[in-house]
Specification:
single chain; Rna Polymerase Sigma Factor, Chain: A; Arc Repressor Mutant, subunit A; 2 domains; mainly alpha
Length: 173
C-alpha cells in the first residue's frame, strides 16, 4: 500500500499527463486510456524512482515512452487517426470562429510534420508549459539542445504559417 503523499503526487500530475497525451494522440479516448496506463505503470514501478529526482520529471519520461508506444500500436490498428476536435466558446461571430478553427487545424498539421524530437519538445514547452530545464531533464538532454530544437520547431511553424499566408504568426506568439 502506498502512502497518501504518493497518491497526491499522482493526482497532482494527472491532468498534465492527460493534456500531453491528448495533444500527442489527438483523440480523447486514446488519451484517457494512455493516461490511465501511464499512471498504473508508474505506480507499479514506483520502487525504481530515485527520490533525489523530481517525481514529475520521472513521470513525464514514462508518459512520453508510453505515448509513443501507444501511438505506434494505434497507427497499426487504424490507418485513419481521428483529428483532435477543439471546442471554442461562441464569440457571436461565426466568421471569426471558423477562421480560428481553421488556424488550429493548420497548426496541428504543421506540428505533425515536425521531426519527432522537435515535435516532442514543442508540445512539452508550448502546450504543457514546461521550462526548458525541466524538458531537458525529462528528455535527458542539455538545456541548449532543447532550446535549439524548440527554436527550430518555432521557425518551421512560423515559416509554414507565412507560406500559407494565414497570419502574421510572429505577433500571435
Amino acid at each position: 500500500m502506498k502512502s497518501p503523499e504518493i497518491n497526491s503526487l499522482f493526482e497532482k500530475n494527472y491532468k498534465k499527463i492527460f493534456r500531453l497525451a491528448l495533444k500527442m494522440l489527438k483523440n480523447y479516448e486514446d488519451a484517457e486510456d494512455a493516461t490511465q496506463n501511464i499512471m498504473q505503470l508508474a505506480y507499479e514501478n514506483l520502487d525504481s524512482f530515485r527520490w533525489e529526482a523530481k517525481f514529475s520529471t520521472w513521470l513525464y519520461r514514462i508518459a512520453l515512452n508510453h505515448i509513443y508506444s501507444y501511438s505506434n500500436k494505434r497507427k497499426k490498428q487504424q490507418k485513419n487517426v481521428s483529428k483532435l476536435n477543439y471546442s471554442f466558446p461562441d464569440s457571436g461571430n461565426p466568421e471569426k470562429r471558423i477562421y480560428t478553427e481553421e488556424l488550429f487545424k493548420k497548426l496541428d498539421e504543421i506540428i505533425e510534420d515536425l521531426p519527432p524530437k522537435q515535435k516532442e519538445i514543442f508540445l512539452l514547452r508550448y502546450y504543457s508549459n514546461l521550462t526548458f530545464k525541466k524538458i531537458a531533464k525529462i528528455l535527458q538532454k542539455k538545456v541548449g539542445t532543447v532550446k535549439s530544437s524548440y527554436f527550430f520547431a518555432m521557425k518551421k511553424i512560423k515559416e509554414s504559417f507565412k507560406k500559407k499566408d494565414l497570419l502574421d504568426f510572429e505577433e500571435q506568439l
